[in-house]
Design goal:
This protein is α+β, with helices and mostly antiparallel strands and 139 residues long. It has helices at 27-43, 47-52, 125-136; strands at residues 6-11, 55-66, 75-86, 89-98, 101-114. The chain has a five-stranded antiparallel beta sheet with strand order 1-3-4-5-2.
Length: 139
């Protein structure tokens, strides 16, 4: 997807659907998290690495816009990119696609905090640098 260099696939599980086999809207939040964790694994040593360095990355906002339904057994590609890193905050943008069809798009906002005190702490240079390298990768 244009402007995105990272993606991961998810398959809609039966447990994520309603009686008509349509994916529940809340399942999309889980899929965004799957993409975020995979992004961090690919570019920043993984979420576990962040936690081992004494930080947490809290979600402070979620916005999703649904364009089409997803159904049981659909394979969806979740595109993710990290943008707007400043101070203790950063944001991910997402596109969820089935083939070339946009199913949903949105963003999540996050804040880095000290793991012991939960006080905001600046995004560390090593993480900001990993994000810059990831977003500079060819698409």
């Amino acid at each position: 997807m244009e402007g995105f260099s990272f993606s991961t696939d998810v398959r809609v599980r039966f447990a994520e659907t309603d009686a008509q086999g349509i994916a529940h809207h809340a399942s999309f939040l889980v899929w965004l998290e799957v993409a975020r964790v995979a992004y961090l694994e690919a570019h920043a040593g993984g979420y576990r690495s962040i936690r081992e360095r004494g930080l947490e990355a809290l979600t402070t906002e979620v916005h999703l816009r649904y364009h089409d339904a997803a159904a049981f057994d659909d394979v969806l590609t979740v595109w993710a990119r990290c943008v707007d890193v400043r101070g203790a905050r950063f944001r991910y943008e997402y596109r969820v696609a089935r083939g070339d069809e946009l199913v949903a798009d949105g963003h999540t906002s996050h804040a880095t905090v000290d793991r012991a005190t939960y006080r905001p702490t600046r995004v560390p240079d090593w993480l900001a640098d990993a994000i810059v390298r990831a977003e500079s990768a060819p698409t």
